Amino acid sequence: MKDCVIEITHVKKSFGSNCVLADISLNLQKGENLVILGKSGSGKSVLIKCLVGLIPIDEGNIRVFNQDLSALNAHELNALRRKIGFLFQSAALYDSMTVRENLEFPLRISKTINNTERDALVTEALKNVGLETVIDKLPSELSGGMRKRVGLARTLILKPELILYDEPTTGLDPITAGEISELILEIQKKYNTSSVIITHDVECARKVANRIIIIKDGAPVATGTFAQLSESEDAWIRSFFNKN
Amino acid sequence: MATTNSAASEKKEVAVIVPVESRNPYTLFIRPILHEVAMLARFCALFFKEVFAPPYELKELIRQCFLIGYKSFPLVAITGFIMGLVLTIQSRPTLAQFGAESWLPAMVAVSIIREIGPVITALIFAGKAGSGIGAELASMKVTEQIDAMEVSGINPFKYLVVTRIIASTFMLPLLVIASDAVSLYGAYIGVNLKGDVSFQLFFLKVFEKLSFSDLFPAVIKTFFFGFMVALISCYKGYNSNKGTVGVGESANASVVLASLSIFILDMIAVQLTSLIT
Ligand SMILES: Nc1ncnc2c1ncn2[C@@H]1O[C@H](COP(=O)(O)OP(=O)(O)OP(=O)(O)O)[C@@H](O)[C@H]1O
Ligand SMILES: [Mg+2]
């Protein structure tokens, strides 16, 4: 497999006696949108945090951009992380900074960007999520959905090669959620990015997924396209797609 | 860690037996403390490793100096003023008994500058800045903001912890000097409540008795106070892990431990200065 962006082999992770990831193996091809489905608490957020080294794994092996995560030193890990965008489930905006400063924060490491370019990037990123008007507000003055979208703008501002979305459309109305799904697709096409998308939103999964993986009890139980899985023999799997 | 005694359960009685080792005072009290001290030392070592390595977060450092130093000034000034005033009023009767009222300015000045100024200011500072740092970092941790910094390739330790520790280390001595000055002014007013000493005469008497060896160690130790307050608060906040409950706990522990460490450091400083002079 030469064009693998992520390769996960036999990853295990427990918190004390709580085994969250029992045995996960999966891979992500270049330019692919992979959707991960699973019940609440099944370890989806933990899995993508392991992918960027935020949570150390107990066993197994994770390779991102053909680099073994466990073999990287702090400096190399930082360099790798700059190629990855991460949207947190909770948006994780910096409370003490305005929306503009939040978006500028990931840009601070690249010395080559001058002020006008930076302003242009910020405005463009906010326009993508339809929030140009809130640029000088603090996160505490925004609604939950707006925060989510600002978080998305911050994730996308560096045009990362790999994007990990943790529930990008949760808490949004169907129209905005649809727009976000479109945006995810558009970014994939435009920059040939690869993405892992965690979602409970069937509509979003239908739109963006090239492939879907369903996780149960810390291990993948099914994989396939939206059409395949939604017509699955297994009633439990079908139930994710609101069909019985 | 509770086990049921098999002999007791035979008689249909359930007894909870605490294993002997967890009743041992060493495992109960001393080991957790030693563990905490070791973790704090590691945190401190990490600080010294990061502080000299570029990139330097100058802008954030200046912002923190403003927030930690400037914003604490009014509080420190008010307490300093009251301290000087009250100390003077309280000392007067005792000195008057010995007919030594003219010593009042010098005595008050020495006690303020040597001991009371630095310690009280540092305690107030621990309450204001320390709890703020502890709570802020803990809530950033809980809401994944620290994780978010980490994944965007920015070293959160450097951006959040190093800047706060440096700011606090250099701002507290300035605050103490300011507080000492306001305190002396309070003492001047205190002296003049029941007497008439001119401003010049008051300060002449103060500086007659004050020497460099009063001032210098007193200022030096405040650097250590400032460093310790921020180190402990950052450590408590940065390692908070228990949701919103943890935020309160971190703020609380920051103030308590920082205050305690101020007294311990002060004791060490006093021993050292009396050895040297
Ligand atoms: N830092 C942690 N320490 C201890 N346990 C944790 C930690 N993070 C997650 N867990 C546990 O891991 C399990 C999976 O959590 P995770 O957040 O990955 O769920 P999820 O699949 O993302 O659920 P949701 O869809 O609700 O977001 C949970 O049982 C949780 O208790
Ligand atoms: Mg989750």
Describe the overall structure.
The complex is a heterodimer of chains A (244) and B (277). Chain A is an alpha/beta fold and 244 residues long. Chain A has two domains: 4-83 and 160-240, Rossmann fold (3-Layer(aba) Sandwich), CATH 3.40.50; 96-159, no CATH class. Chain A has nine helices and ten strands. Chain A has helices at residues 44-51, 74-81, 99-104, 115-128, 144-156, 174-191, 202-208, 226-230, 235-239, and strands at residues 4-15, 18-29, 33-38, 59-64, 67-68, 84-87, 162-166, 194-198, 211-216, 219-224. In chain A, a hairpin with a 2-residue loop joins β1 (4-15) and β2. In chain A, α4 packs across α5 (144-156) and α6 (174-191) packs parallel to α7. Chain A is globular. Chain A starts with a strand and ends in a 5-residue tail after the last helix. The model of chain A has no long low-confidence stretch (mean pLDDT 88). Chain B is an all-alpha fold. Chain B has one domain (24-276). Helix content of chain B is 81%, strand content 1%. Chain B is built from ten helices and two strands; from the N terminus they run βαβααααααααα. In chain B, α4 (73-97) packs parallel to α7 and α5 (104-142) runs antiparallel to α10 (243-276). Chain B is globular and about 65 Å long. The termini of chain B are far apart. Chain A binds chain B through residues 49, 52, 54, 74, 78-79, 81-82, 84, 86, 88, 90, 92-96, 105-106, 108-109, 158, and chain B through 136, 139-140, 143-145, 147-155. Magnesium ion binds next to α1 of chain A. Adenosine-5'-triphosphate (ATP) is lined by residues 15, 18, 20, 38, 40-46, 89 of chain A.
